[in-house]
Amino acid sequence: MKAFYHYTSERHHLPAILSSGELRGRADMAGERPLVWFSAHPFWEPTATKPRWIGGLLVPQTFEEYYDVFGCVRFALPATDGRLMEWRRACKFAGIPRRARWAMESVGVEAGGDPREWFALAGPLPLEELKAERLEGGQWLPMTVEEGASHV
Fold first, then answer.
1. CB hemisphere CA count around 15 (13 angstroms)
2. Predicted local distance difference test score (pLDDT) of residue 54
3. Rounded-to-integer distance, Cα 16 and Cα 122, Å
4. Which residues contact 42 (CB under 8 A, 6 or more apart)?
5. Using CA atoms, how far apart are residues 35 and 123, in angstroms rounded to an integer?
6. Low-confidence residues of the chain, pLDDT below 50?
7. What is the spatial distance between Cα 62 and Cα 53, in angstroms, rounded to a whole number?
8. pTM to 2 decimals?
9. Cα gap 55→81, rounded to integer Å
10. Is residue 135 exposed (0-12), middle (13-18) or buried (19+ Cβ within 10 Å)?
């Protein structure tokens, strides 16, 4: 089964996801509709590696640094799920202005991402609809929601 993934941090975002029991959409600008973002990238979406505040500075991280500090988890959704929207359609649905979309594409490509691999759906999305996996030793291994809660 081909899947798309919502990549996130184990020690930073996973606790809130587990306590809510769902993936919730996110909107960055006023008036924007929140979306839950997914990637077709089979190992890790490069744009999911966020910078980190260190000594008052926002510092970029390598994937390895991000993994060491935060841990990596992903939630898989079948790629055939009819609720998924491709990148441009999702941006239009959310009300993201074209200039903002172009800027996100530019920053994403610079980080190693590919907008053709970006998808979204309007949330929330209950965790029971998804397959959860944790990155351990360079491999994605299945995890249960209860197991995820015990590792955080």
1. 6
2. 86
3. 19
4. none
5. 6
6. none
7. 14
8. 0.90
9. 43
10. middle
